[in-house]
């Protein structure tokens, strides 16, 4: 439960043949789940995203990026800090794998616009992915847009000197942050100082980059299903 790397693999595709059919798609959405999701949980989040986007008239493929976020003890108060920290480390490390997939896919299918959706800790995976992609100038504008739901990264990210430049460089069109001041999990994490000032709680602070927008929403709770239900348009 430390976030230590056990297997230093890159990503793998499942089912592999399905990905061959995505080559040449006009667009592609990649959904990244939050903490405490096993494989079944990850699949459920993709299905939720796919159904909601389809309901909103979006007709392009939606896939998921899963990482080992099912940290032991995350649901127990006495282990929460340690398991969340482990989850954050794992999320940061997995940004490298998602960045590799995006580079590889864009190489085989340069016309495809890639959009990323991240719920909760999935926002950390996206941020780490952008950091990795920003290391190469050919990745400028490689991601079309990013959508955060109940993001657990800090509220200064869209205005910070460090991340602002990277986001601006890698994301071509826009970043939309769906935040909720009534989110019970983020309120608790903020109060307990597990995450100081989560972006998904009260939105961004400071002067943000021009590609950044935010929208206050009132989901029933922190679950992705609740955030998906209040999503009114896409992309």
Secondary structure: helix percent: 25-40%
Oligomeric state = single chain
Number of domains: 1
* Strand arrangement across the biggest beta sheet: 2-1-3-4-5-6
CATH architecture classification name: 3-Layer(aba) Sandwich
Distance between the termini: 36 Å
Estimate the mean pLDDT confidence: 88
CATH fold-level name: Rossmann fold
What proportion strand?
15-25%
Spell the H/E element sequence.
HEHEHEHEHEHHEH
Net shape: globular
Radius of gyration: 17 Å
Low-confidence stretches: 1-7, 70-79
Q: Give the biggest sheet.
A: 6 strands, parallel
Number of strands: 6
Derived structural class: alpha/beta
CATH superfamily: Alpha/Beta hydrolase fold, catalytic domain
Name the CATH class. Answer: Alpha Beta
Per DSSP, the total helix count is 8
Short description:
One of its GO terms (cellular component) is membrane. By secondary structure, this protein is α/β, with parallel strands linked by helices.
Secondary-structure map with pairings?
Blueprint (H helix, E strand, L loop, with lengths): L15 H5 L6 E6 L6 H17 L6 E4 L14 H29 L4 E7 L2 H12 L9 E7 L11 H10 E9 L4 H8 L7 H4 L9 E5 L7 H6 L6
Parallel strand pairs: 1-2, 1-3, 3-4, 4-5, 5-6
Walk me through this protein's architecture.
It is a multi-pass membrane protein. Keywords: Membrane, Transmembrane, Transmembrane helix. This is DUF726 domain protein. With 235 residues, the chain is α/β, with parallel strands linked by helices. It has a single domain (27-229), classed as Rossmann fold, CATH 3.40.50.1820. The chain contains eight helices and six strands. It has helices at 16-20, 39-55, 80-108, 122-133, 161-170, 184-191, 199-202, 224-229; strands at 27-32, 62-65, 113-119, 143-149, 171-179, 212-216. It has a six-stranded parallel sheet with strand order 2-1-3-4-5-6, sandwiched between helices. Helix 3 packs across helix 4 and helix 4 (122-133) crosses helix 5. The longest helix is centred in the middle third of the chain and has 29 residues, at 80-108. The protein is globular.
């Amino acid at each position: 439960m430390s976030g230590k790397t056990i297997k230093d693999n890159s990503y793998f595709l499942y089912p592999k043949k399905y990905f061959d059919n995505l080559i040449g798609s006009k667009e592609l959405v990649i959904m990244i789940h939050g903490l405490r999701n096993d494989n079944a949980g990850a699949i459920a989040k993709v299905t939720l995203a796919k159904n909601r986007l389809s309901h909103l008239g979006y007709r392009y493929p939606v896939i998921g990026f899963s990482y080992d976020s099912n940290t032991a003890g995350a649901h127990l108060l006495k282990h929460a800090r340690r398991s969340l920290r482990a989850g954050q480390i794992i999320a940061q490390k997995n940004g490298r794998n998602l960045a590799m997939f995006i580079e590889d896919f864009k190489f085989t299918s340069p016309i495809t616009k890639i959009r990323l959706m991240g719920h909760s800790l999935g926002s950390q995976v996206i941020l780490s992915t952008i950091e990795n992609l920003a290391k190469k100038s050919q990745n400028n504008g490689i991601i079309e847009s990013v959508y955060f739901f109940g993001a657990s990264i800090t509220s200064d990210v869209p205005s910070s000197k460090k991340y602002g430049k990277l986001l601006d460089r890698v994301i071509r069109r826009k970043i939309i942050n769906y935040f909720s001041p009534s989110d019970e999990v983020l309120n608790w994490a903020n109060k307990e100082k597990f995450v100081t000032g989560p972006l998904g709680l009260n939105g961004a602070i400071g002067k943000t980059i021009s590609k950044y927008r935010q929208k206050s929403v009132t989901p029933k709770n922190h679950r992705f299903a609740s955030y998906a239900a209040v999503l009114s348009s896409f992309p």
